[in-house]
Structure formats: C-alpha cells, structure tokens
Amino acid sequence: MSAIRYSARTANEKRRDIISERVKSIPPSGIRKFFDLLNSMDGVISLGIGEPDFTTPWHIREYAIYSMERGHTMYTSNAGLIELRQELARHLSRLYGVEYDPQKELLITVGVSEALDIALRAIINPGDEIIIPEPTYVAYSASAILAGASVVSVPTSRANDFNVTAAEIEARVTDRTKAILLGYPNNPTGAVVSRQELIAIAEVAQRRDLIVISDEIYDRLIYDVEHTCFSSLPGVWDRTILLGGFSKAYAMTGWRVGYAAAPADILEAMFKIHQYVMMCAPTGGQRAALEALRNGEEAVQEMVQEYNRRRRVICNGFNEIGLSCFEPKGAFYAFPSIESTGMTSEEFAEALLMEEKVAVVPGTAFGASGAGHVRCCYATSLRNINEALVRIDRFVGKRAKDK
Amino acid sequence: MREILEILEKDARATPKVIAMMLALAEDEVRRTIEDLEKSKVIVKFKTVVNWEKAGEELASALIEVKVSPQRGVGFDAIAERIYRFPEARSVYLVSGTYDLQVQVVGKTMKDISRFVTEKLAPLEGVHGTVTHFLLKRYKEDGDILEDEEEVKRLPLSL
C-alpha cells in the first residue's frame, strides 16, 4: 500500500499544474487550521457549529424508517416526489401566500447548497456580476465564482444591525449586474431585513431588471418578528428564485433536502442541470421531508421557543460581559462585537479556544465586514451556553486587567 | 406564567435570574410569580428524578389494578383516599375501563409488595379484587428516557 502511494507521489511531482484556475481563485477556508486544532482538543464547548443540536423529531425519523421498510429505496422523479412538491406548494401558500405550481415551479434539491449552485449556473454568463451583502454565508461567493460570476460585496455594519439597504445595493448596480443574492435571516449575523426595506430592494430589482436569489433556509427560525418571503412582495414573483429547505426548521441537516421555487422558465433551466448532475434528492430524505411538512409544525414551534430562550440568555450574557451584541432576530447565531478587547476577531477566537476551550468563529471568515465580531451559535444546551459565558467572562476580564 | 412553569418542569434548578433572561421578564417579577405558584400549590414541589437502579439500590415496584365499589355521596374519593394515604402507594389514579383504580406500589422486595397487597389493600372494605403487575424494566418515566443513549456527535465547527 505504502509503495503504491509512494509511486503516486513521485508521479505527482512530474505532473504539470492540473487544478483549474477557477478553483484556484477561490480562497481556501480561513478556519481550516482552527478546525484541526479544535478537533485535537478535549472538553471544548463549541459555539462554532452551524446546525441544530436537536435530532430530527422522532415521528419524522420513524416515517422515513417505515418508508425504507416498504421498499422506497429507488430514485424518485428528477424534480422530487410529486406528493412532496404538492405539500410544499400548499405549505408556501399557507405561510406566505405565494403560489407555485408543483409540476413546473418547484424542484426538490440536495439541500439549499445544490439549489443555490444550480440557480447560479442557470442564470450566470461569464463576467456577470452578482451583488452579495456581507458578512455572508461562506458558500455564497464561492458558489458564485464557480458559476463564473464576479462577486460585488455590499458591506453591512453594526451601525445598521447588519441590515442591507436598497440604496446600498442600488449604488453597486452596473450594466453587468445580473442578480442580487440575499440570505435573511442571516448566517452569521442573525439579522433580519425589515419588510419595508425588502420592498425597496424589490423596487430596485424591478427598476434595474435584476434577478433576486433569496435563500430563506432560516425562515422559520425567527423571533418576535414575522418573516417576509421575498417572492411574496409586489412585482417580483417572476424575478425571484426562492430557496429553502428542511435542515434548520426541522433539524434535518444530515438528510440533505432542500428546494427551489421559481418561475417555470428559470426552474426549467435549473432542472436541466439538476437532472444531469444530481438525478434526484435522496429518497429517504424526501419521504422524511414529506412527513415533516404534514405533521412537523408542533416540533418546529417547540424548537423555535427553545432557541428564542437561549438567544435571550446569550445576548444578555454578552452585553453583561461587555461584548456589545445587537439583538439578532433570526437564525441561531449571535454576532457580538469583540472590539472592546482590542483584539482582532481571529486573535480573539484563537486565544479563547487555547485559554478557555470555547470555540467561536471569527467574523472575518464571513467577509472583511465581519471584522471585530465573532459568530456564536446558540443551538446548544443552556448549560453549555451558561458555561461558555462564564469562561468568556473570565477571558475578557483577564484582558481588561492586563490593559 | 405558563412559560415559567414549562421551564421549571424541565429543570427545577433554573434560577429566577436565568428564567427572567430566557423570557425577557424582570427577575423580581419571575421570583414573585414562582412564590405565588408555590403558595397556591400550582407548583406542588421541586424534586429530582433518580434512577435508583443505577445508584445500586434494589427496588421492587408494581402496577396494581384495583376494582372497587363507589360509595354514595363520595363516589370513588373515599376509597381512593384510604389507599393513597399508605406511603407504599406512589401513585393512585381513577381510570376508565375494566377496573377502577390504578395504584403504583414501591417496596424493597417483591415480598414487601405482596404483603402490602394481601394485608392492606385487598382486605379494604369496598375493594373487590386486585391484579398485580410487577415491573420488569423501566424504559421511560415522566417523559424522561432512563436508558443511557449514545451521544450523537456533531461536527465541532460548521459554517
């Protein structure tokens, strides 16, 4: 075995540079080193996670197990189980009053990740620009670059609770701009853009003839405010690609099921890519998603209530420690400022991990405008949250004394 | 109030300070509400769920179906009270179906339980018959699974 590996390596050395320029142009994940460090340590409380701590509700798992016992183990239709698309159409209509034809306007995908990828590839020509508010989920710009787009970032800041405005977007629109990519409720900040501002953004999209890709994966995880579905806004249904999924609301990250909803011509183009590269989303996951839509509402409410309580505890905690934290209205992230410590977000995250064994993600992992902040996921037990707060308090206190 | 009760039902040790944070209420208000709930016996008591088997204690326990005849004026309440006053009776329910009272009895040994049933419970006036089911294994109690479950590992970092 080792001999074979050795010869493969010598062959490598002689090989020319084979990695594509496009892939090379994507920056490597800035937290890789951090990840390896974290994996080698014991007793770490991780607020660096990006998924629910709940396991999938039992009724959903049980239904999926039953479906496998009955032999539902083969491909589904490329677009996804028709029952699931029908149920999803009813769900979107009930929640947001948006209407999609399950036959032509809905596509079941392998998570929002795939949906985003094929949405971008379906609309981007080389050199097209796409406007993305920042800080942003790390896959947005990478997926856009892979699709051949040029990314135009719109930095947002604490001053406006990390909300993007229509004016900031419009200021960056050029002749080459093809689309705006929105992700609200936002990962990493937890920000939720107001309905009023979204209407203004919708007007920009119409005025400048832009597509809006709206990733609403966190739509159900929203606290004390209401979620606005972008395609439900006046005049933009036919220029919106709505992306959503089951991972966050129903604690189903590992099942890999999401969806895209879009006008038939756009969806048809996405479908073309999907059928060649993916065939269909996993069958077991689709069955589970069907059960989630039919009977999962109570579990969603319970989880949201629990997240909301943890959210208040962690934000209060940060503010008491002196790490000022604006109130995140959605998702399960708090994004406190660590500027009072005089450290950069990378220094803070690394020292906190080494000294107090608490893992947080530096804000700069999500773009330059995340500087001075760290992302803390509160999808973990209250006991962990409280212990993490004690450790962070000690860490920050020590810094204050040293100054 | 309902939310305060829900939190305490899951974790009796949740302090008024933490509850206040979780619900965005004033700490004083939470403290007062809990005191009122205790006074009015909405909160019966705060206690701990113990898995005695794990603590190495041998305990025997049985569910007993009891058929009784109700009495004029007090229905099943009088006979139920006679039974629930025995400390051996851990829970007593009036149920619909083929019998009337369901009594859970706990003792150190099966013999203790047999003795209780034959000497105390069965001879009571108004008791027509009993069926004793000894507990063989506890899986879940009061919403809590007692088995050790394998911890599910999440990736420590994801974006």
Structural account:
The complex is a heterodimer of chains A (403) and B (159). Chain A is of the alpha/beta class and 403 residues long. Chain A has two domains: 28-56 and 299-402, Alpha-Beta Complex (Aspartate Aminotransferase, domain 1), CATH 3.90.1150; 60-295, Aspartate Aminotransferase, domain 2, CATH 3.40.640. Chain A contains 14 helices and twelve strands. The relative contact order of chain A is 0.16. With 159 residues, chain B is α+β, with helices and mostly antiparallel strands. Chain B has two domains: 2-39; 60-138, Alpha-Beta Plaits (2-Layer Sandwich). A four-stranded antiparallel β-sheet of chain B has the order 2-3-1-4. The longest helix of chain B is centred in the first third of the chain and has 13 residues, at 27-39. Chains A and B meet through helix 3 and helix 12 of A and helix 2 of B.
Main attributes of the structure:
heterodimer, A: alpha/beta, Aspartate Aminotransferase, domain 1, Aspartate Aminotransferase, domain 2, seven-stranded mixed sheet, 12 strands, 12% strand, B: 159 residues, alpha+beta, 5 helices, 21% strand
Ordered list of secondary-structure elements with their pairings:
The complex is a heterodimer of chains A (403) and B (159).
Chain A (H helix, E strand, L loop, with lengths): L1 H13 L6 H4 L7 H8 L5 E2 L11 H12 L12 H15 L9 E4 L1 H13 L5 E6 L3 H9 L3 E6 L10 H5 L6 E6 L12 H13 L3 E5 L24 E6 L12 E4 L2 H14 L5 H13 L1 H25 L11 E2 L10 H12 L1 E2 L1 E2 L11 E4 L4 H21 L1
Parallel strand pairs in A: 1-10, 3-4, 3-5, 5-6, 6-7
Antiparallel strand pairs in A: 2-8, 7-8, 9-12, 11-12
Chain B lengths: L1 H9 L5 H8 L3 H13 L20 E9 L8 H8 L4 E6 L6 E7 L2 H12 L5 E8 L5 E2 L2 E2 L14
Antiparallel strand pairs in B: 1-3, 1-4, 2-3, 5-6
Helix pairs in contact in B: 2-3
